[in-house]
Amino acid sequence: MRxxxxxxxxxxALPAARAEAPVKTISPEEAVNHYGKLVTVKSIISADTTSxxxxxxxxxxxxxxxxxxxxxxxxxxxxxxxxxxxxTGRTCAITGEVQSYKGKPEIVVNSPSQVVCE
Length: 118
What we know:
The protein is of the alpha+beta class. It has one helix spanning 2-19, and strands at 24-26, 38-50, 56-60, 69-73, 91-101, 104-108, 115-117.
């Protein structure tokens, strides 16, 4: 009976331990190998631009269309970033799930907490 109780206690602790696992920090060039994974991409922002439709793009590893990685802030989330100045030339870390957009890795940024700049 005690063994079963210990087993259940161990199983209950697994999700909590997994949730607290540190997120891997990678370079923009490595992002292409991490599609579908939660990571932090850290580098200098090559270009911080806003499109005519209000989408904001934080490119690393080069400027569009030659960037290695993009942090995309959709226009629907732009108001949450209105107090965040242009970060071109600053070292920033963008955390989220890496997705592919037109063959390039990107993270959709929904919250300012996903972007930390030095």
